[in-house]
Specification:
Blueprint: H1 12-39, H2 50-83, E1 97-98, E2 107-108, H3 115-125, H4 163-181, H5 183-186, H6 197-200, H7 211-225, H8 236-253, E3 263-267, E4 278-279, H9 283-307, H10 314-339, E5 343-345, E6 348-355, H11 370-395, H12 402-420
Parallel strand pairs: 3-4, 3-6
Antiparallel strand pairs: 1-2, 5-6
Length: 441
């Protein structure tokens, strides 16, 4: 088995650069898995039988478990960043990204569930030394750059071949800096500003305080993704192989079997840093995806506040953790699943809308001042609650979305109340929707 050549990390700034790239990558890969899971059909009314629906539900569960572990990896990488005195990294480039922003072998795009998506995921999760081709349409578009040397002081891209390759370089970078400067100097970040198992219920979410815990965090990421070297059966790579095998077997038995809705990535605005997917023109779909993107934006703000908080008390930090998870489970997931049943419009006839997780801001989602941060996050939650309530009552009943959107609205009210209970002055604030918040005519 051929192991890729090592990357070189000589300085703290270079380590921060590579960790930031790892955070963006984990974030983007998690969104890809969520997109594929949202695209799966949900009932026998969609042209599948009971046996096929059981298989689809099993695949959805496995993919969502993998997506959840990618979120754990994002939290661990942010612990690693915090441990060496850096800011958390919750931003990322918008997708698709094909060989320009990331190294040539790392192509990222939203693909509905199917053989192409599964082979793409297998390529991204492949263990070091396993040579497989990416799925069709994910060709490399650039050449690799030479390694850094001891004479370099500015960080610059170094093209890793696999995700495991990237993390082995990061692990070696930590070890090199500790050898050069000592643990106390390297791990100077505040311990209290890191995510913990108590806050987010992941037993593997270790705070990073020294080289041993840094290695433990990195090992968790690598072993869950590609598996311990030579043992990948229970890792993401092995689980995806099982799903692909089951899917191909069902296709052989029933060539017309399609477990996914006719989903395409759908955007509500022109994104600056990538080519957007199909632009949505259906009014209700547009409003729903706007709500999805705002909920996603708020979740990133809350997570950034958790990692880069100021004077929050322990109960306030737990509130931030609870609100971020609540937004994912009770708001983003139901809106994402609902969107994939809705039409895109004129740009994609016959296609349904896959959320593109659009990022509109380049700020990194950090809000620097404690009271101001809580006011802004709470205000945005209540604005979103009012927005969802308005378009839910105007057009939701006609397409069967009232129950879903009412549940989302109630969840937002609960999350806003949870924040208000832990910050004086928020409980009295209510946000009324402007008249323009109805669906466009």
């Amino acid at each position: 088995m051929n192991i890729e050549a090592p990357l070189v990390i000589e300085h703290r700034d270079a380590l921060i650069y590579m960790l930031s790239e790892a955070a963006e990558l984990e974030h983007a890969i998690a969104c890809q898995y969520l997109f594929a899971a949202f695209s799966l059909k949900q009932s026998t009314d969609e042209g599948i039988d009971e046996r096929q629906l059981i298989a689809i539900e099993r695949w959805r569960k496995l993919i969502l478990e993998i997506a959840t572990e990618e979120m754990l990896h994002l939290a661990l990488v942010n612990n690693l960043l915090t441990s060496i005195g850096a800011a958390p990294r919750l931003g990322r480039p918008n997708l698709p990204q094909h060989g320009h922003y990331y190294p040539p072998g790392v192509q990222l795009a939203f693909v509905r569930f199917g053989e192409r998506a599964l082979r793409h995921f297998l390529f991204l999760e492949r263990p070091e030394g396993i040579n497989i081709q990416d799925a069709e349409g994910f060709d490399s578009l650039d050449e690799a750059q030479p390694l850094m040397s001891e004479e370099d002081i500015l960080p610059r891209p170094q093209h890793f071949s696999t995700v495991g390759h990237l993390y082995r370089a990061i692990e070696d970078g930590f070890a090199h800096l500790v050898e050069r400067h000592g643990e106390e100097w390297v791990f100077l970040g505040p311990h209290y500003a890191q995510a913990t198992p108590e806050a987010f219920w992941w037993k593997d979410l270790v705070p990073v305080t020294d080289l041993a815990s840094a290695r433990q965090a990195i090992e968790t990421v690598v072993e869950q993704g590609e598996g311990p070297r030579g043992h990948w059966k229970d890792a993401h790579y092995g689980r995806l192989l099982v799903i692909l095998g089951e899917y191909l077997e069902m296709k052989r038995s029933h060539p017309d079997f399609d477990p996914a809705r006719p989903v395409v990535p759908a955007c509500v605005s022109k994104i600056l840093d990538t080519e957007p997917g199909a632009r949505v023109s259906e009014p209700f779909t547009m409003r729903l995806l706007e709500a999805f993107n705002v909920a996603y934006e708020i979740m990133l703000q809350v997570l950034a506040r958790y990692f880069a908080h100021g004077h929050e008390r322990p109960e306030q930090l737990q509130t931030l953790a609870d609100v971020s998870v609540g937004l994912m489970i009770k708001v983003i997931a139901p809106l994402g699943n609902f969107a994939t049943a809705l039409p895109v419009g004129d740009e994609a006839p016959g296609k349904t809308a896959g959320p593109s997780f659009e990022i509109f801001y380049r700020s990194g989602f950090m809000l620097p001042h404690t009271r101001g941060a809580w006011v802004l996050m709470h205000e945005r939650i209540m604005e979103l609650e009012a927005f969802v309530g308005r378009f839910c009552h105007d057009t939701g009943p006609s397409i069967g979305g009232t129950e879903i959107l009412t549940g989302v609205q109630h969840a937002l009210l609960d999350l806003g109340a949870k924040m208000a209970a832990h910050m004086d002055g928020l409980a009295e604030r209510t946000i009324a929707p402007p008249p323009s918040w109805g669906p466009p005519t």
